[in-house]
Design a protein that fits this description.
By secondary structure, this protein is α/β, with parallel strands linked by helices. The chain has 8 helices and 10 strands. It has a 5-stranded parallel beta sheet with strand order 2-1-6-5-8, sandwiched between helices. Helix 3 crosses helix 5 (about 150-160) and helix 7 (about 205-225) crosses helix 8 (about 225-235). The two termini are about 40 Å apart. It binds adenine. The site of adenine has 13 residues, from strand 5.
Length: about 240
């Protein structure tokens, strides 16, 4: 059982999308979710979690002291040091490789800190990176309102690497990004739809030829859509 703890000012957003599909079915069986509400750790009567930035500028900055106690409360759930991830558009761009790094031999679990507003006081980020090996991760070169949806992306892709969480273990290895090629196209019934027939090779029962056709298609698609992936695949 792997414990995931999300540290956020919007705890109601969880489990949200994570409660569906095979991931949702695995909740309580393969993984557990805890959510820490940062606001509960504010010390003043207004429950302030943010303040104006020193030096001026737009927006608010989440306070170091409040975020630090919230993270420590999360850490208290664990007997071993878990992987700690800070969601930020300034982080290292997430990939299947990073998902594997997070999960490889990970018996301890994961804590994910979700940023909001203009950011979090840099001192608490620096402290947690140095002291607890926190890593900052972005889900891509675009800006969202906060780290909650990115956290869901990380959780989804990391947890589907848990052996047994997928009914069909083969599909994790053959699919996109495990082998640097995008996936070949799939078809199901009916054989004819909208005047288009399913490629006849797929109905032939010849497994060798089907496998060859699929590889050819996967290569074609990768070459056209992702020349960057194609280049490293060809190496
Ligand atoms: N917060 C806002 N945008 C983000 C992104 N692209 N990745 C991670 N966290 C974010």
């Amino acid at each position: 059982m792997i414990l995931v703890t999300v540290v956020t000012i919007f705890p109601e957003m969880f489990p949200g999308a994570l409660a569906f599909s095979l991931l949702g079915a695995g909740l309580g069986k393969f993984w557990l979710l805890k959510v820490i509400d940062i606001r509960e750790f504010a010390t003043d009567k207004h429950k302030t979690v943010d303040d104006r930035p020193f030096g001026g500028g737009a927006g608010m900055v989440m306070k170091a002291d409040v975020v630090d106690i919230a993270l420590k409360a999360a850490l208290n759930f664990y007997s071993q040091l878990p992987k700690i991830i800070f969601m930020t558009p300034r982080g290292h761009v997430f990939s299947q490789k990073i998902a594997k790094e997070i999960m490889d031999g990970n018996d301890a679990g994961i804590i994910i800190l979700c940023g909001r507003y203009e950011g979090i006081d840099q001192r608490v980020i620096d402290f947690w990176k140095k002291r607890y090996n926190m890593r900052d991760v972005s889900i891509g070169d675009y800006i969202l309102f906060g780290g909650e949806i990115p956290a869901m992306v990380i959780i989804d892709s990391c947890l589907r690497l848990i052996p047994g969480i997928m009914n069909n273990t083969e599909s994790t290895s053959s699919e996109s990004f495990s082998i640097d090629l995008l996936e070949y196209p799939q078809y199901t019934k009916p054989r004819s739809w909208n005047s288009e027939d399913v490629p006849s090779i797929l109905l032939s029962g010849n497994h060798k030829e089907i496998a060859e056709w699929r590889t050819k298609k996967a290569e074609e698609i990768t070459k056209n859509v992702r020349p960057d992936l194609w280049k490293s695949y060809k190496k």
